Amino acid sequence: MGADMALAIARAPHYATGVDPQPSETLATIGVRRLAAIDWDSAAEDIGWRLDPELDEDSADITGRLPGLAAEAVNAVLHPRRDIAVVTIADQEYFATGGLSWGDPPTDIFDQLDAVDALGVWDAEITAAEVAEATS
């Protein structure tokens, strides 16, 4: 059995018309606030293993731990790293990471990026109201 090429690609933050690009600290605040809207009971089975492979899906504390782990993932993805690239496809930026895998994550950020994508943190445009709230 050989190695497989594994890629994780997630939409990067994008802005509503008239909203200027924001520093990573502001984006992290917006991303964490968006996490508050997630139903963690529903997300636990799909997301838990991506954020912590040791996390037991039947554990009573899984929904208590996931928001913090997801916030760490949002922060990690937004800060410059060697193992993540920004690629542009059809005028939209995406974060990408990957490499050869023998069943394990090919990069340190792989599972976190995959979780941020699965949670849909950056699916919606960043609005002026979100920026104002995050910077006040």
Number of domains: 1
Strand order of the largest sheet: 1-3-2
Q: Termini, distance in Å?
A: 54 Å
| Count of strand segments | 3
Describe the structure.
Helix 1 packs antiparallel against helix 3 and helix 2 crosses helix 3. Helices cover 43% and strands 17% of the residues. It is built from 5 helices and 3 strands, in the order βαααββαα. It is α+β, with helices and mostly antiparallel strands and 136 residues long. A 3-stranded antiparallel β-sheet has the order 1-3-2, covered by helices on one side. The protein has one domain.
Topology:
Layout: E1 4-11, H1 24-35, H2 40-51, H3 62-78, E2 85-89, E3 92-101, H4 110-119, H5 128-135
Antiparallel strand pairs: 1-3, 2-3
Q: What's the short version?
A:
43% of the residues lie in helices and 17% in strands.
Key terms:
single chain, 136 residues, alpha+beta, 3-stranded antiparallel sheet, 3 strands, 43% helix
